[in-house]
Amino acid sequence: MDTAQQEATARARELQRSWYGEPLGALFRRLIDDLGLNQARLAAVLGLSAPMLSQLMSGQRAKIGNPAVVQRVQALQELAGQVADGSVSAGEATDRMEEIKKSQGGSVLTSSGQTTSSSGAPTVRRVVREIQSLLRSVSAAGDIIDAADALAPTHPELAEFLKVYGAGRTADAVAHYEGHQS
To answer: According to the lineage, what is the superkingdom (predicted)?
Structure first.
């Protein structure tokens, strides 16, 4: 790989970090490990071609263009957490992955049961990830930051919201969300 390709890959991974909280290679490898998948199966569940998944993982491509795929990634992240904490068995996880594979996206805050905790209430992290996903499906992080900078002089709270949810890390957005609840 030449220097220009290395720089492009590094830039793509930085963009992925700003959009998705981490480079997609790391995120996808964790899902593969946690859910016992291979790359071909992960690509199938997400609704991506195997070459597209490979390009996203390697940093040859930065952005997931389809918001429904982003939602499937988030659903798989939540499922992996449930498998890890024992609340979902391996067999149930296989069934859930089939449901996730068939999901077409749609309303980000009302996907079938995937936004709720065991108590039936949406988890803060899940709500935050849905807000981030929606913002990031509308615009790239750099454009969101530019819009926030333009709003900052007259609407600082809205500018902060855009920066935190549209271009920030999930942990920072969770802290912001929790800090603004009564």
So the answer is: Bacteria
